[in-house]
Amino acid sequence: MQRVAVQPHLLRWARKRAGLDLFELLARFPKLEEWEQGEERPTLRQLEKFAQAVFVPLGYLFLPAPPEEQLPIPDFRTIAGREVLRPGPNLLDTIYACQEKQAWYREFAQSSRRGKVKFVGSATINDSPERVARTMRDTFSFSLEERRRCRGWEESLRFFSFQAEAAGVLVMISGVVGSNNRRKLDPEEFRGFALADSLAPLVFINGNDTKAARMFTLAHELAHLWLGTSALSDMGAAPRHSLRREEIWCNKVAAEYLVPLDELRMEYDEAEPLEDALRRLGRIFKVSSLVVLRRLLDAGKLDRDRFNEAWGIAMAGFKQRSSSGGGNFYNTTMTRVSPRFARALMESTLEGQTLYRDAFRMLGVSKTETFHTLARKVGVQL
After folding, report:
1. How many CA atoms, within 13 angstroms, populate the side-chain half-sphere of residue 98?
2. Are strands 170-174 and 202-206 parallel, antiparallel or unpaired?
3. pLDDT (tens digit, 9 = 90+) per residue, 130-177?
4. Calpha distance 368→286 (Å, rounded)
5. Cβ of 59: how many Cβ atoms within 10 Å?
6. DSSP code, position 116
7. What are the two backbone dihedrals, phi and then psi, of residue 248, each rounded to the nearest 5 degrees?
8. Radius of gyration, CA atoms only, the chain
9. Where does the record place the IrrE N-terminal-like domain (predicted)?
10. Among residues 251, 112, 314, 89, which one has the least CA distance to residue 184?
């Protein structure tokens, strides 16, 4: 049996890159400890299975040293004010998959002579966040009155996403890599990202964040599209300091877009207990209590000490994350890949312009019957 010469330190690097410890993999690879010590060598088949288990391209394991993996988009994430240095494989693979979908849709838009999305790159960080927020509300028809008619955060987020898609944005919300439910996306690593493009603007939202947090992330990433910039973000509603002026600006736009100060002041009751006010205003604006708190601070209704105390209490209630998985398979698939993208891809495939193999991979399906059912769900003629 032929063994493969592989550097032990590359095996250790690949395992740690995937966030796995030795004991998690020993059940599948009993000789892994000996491989990592250089005492034994794996077969090619064993090495292929190991590469799949740690989500690393097989070719990386034949390099003389681990590659320096760089994020393909600007990284605006921070932890305690410091930049995050190493992207995880789930994050990298998610960005690469979205870039593939975006590239496909851009070519589709060009070939079908679809117009550019005019608001992409229409603003600068020198523009007033209030003015840009008004433009966003006009573009998406997402007024307070329309939100009042939504029964909760989930319906409001669905309506918000639908309006963004109707305006030309590919909105993808998922808590896993592709359709692999074993590869969960960690909201502590990132909340979302934007891929700016005048023909195929794309926003990805981490579906393992809370539903209310996704509302703010979607608004924040859309603000990046207004600037015409791609970016990876982890900033929530907190009015915290950042070294990135662009992130501060996008947060201000998102906050004003979701909770305009003029409307907040009209709805706010000075005599109402703060806890009751947070619940009531959250239901009106369809945002989390964290966003309401931030806007009350912006409006001068809370001093910093009272804000910090209330923020700590509210944060304790948001420890439980909610996943976007489960539910109806077809609806979940549409949410993960963007209804606009799915519809275009299925039309192109049925017309013979795109291979079924490629369509199946990008949609995350494996059967023709499933593909056809998805097509009928979005109104594509078979």
Report:
1. 33
2. parallel
3. 999 999 999 998 878 888 888 877 888 899 999 999 999 999 999 999
4. 39
5. 9
6. P
7. -60, -45
8. 23
9. 164-296
10. 89
What is the distance, to the nearest Å, from the Cα of residue 87 to the centroid of all Cα atoms in its chain? 14
Structure tokens of 139? 């573009």
Q: Give pLDDT tens digits for 54-78.
A: 999 999 999 999 988 888 888 877 6
Question: Do the beta carbons of residue 334 and residue 377 sit within 8 Å?
Answer: yes
Report the C-alpha gap between 379 and 58 in whole angstroms. Answer: 40
Domain ranges for the chain: 8-62, 78-316, 329-377
Cα–Cα distance, 234 to 240 (Å, whole number): 12
Give the type of residue at 377: K
Alpha helices for the chain (secondary structure H)? 8-17, 22-26, 32-37, 44-53, 89-111, 129-140, 144-148, 153-166, 211-227, 245-258, 261-267, 274-285, 289-298, 304-316, 329-337, 339-350, 356-363, 368-377
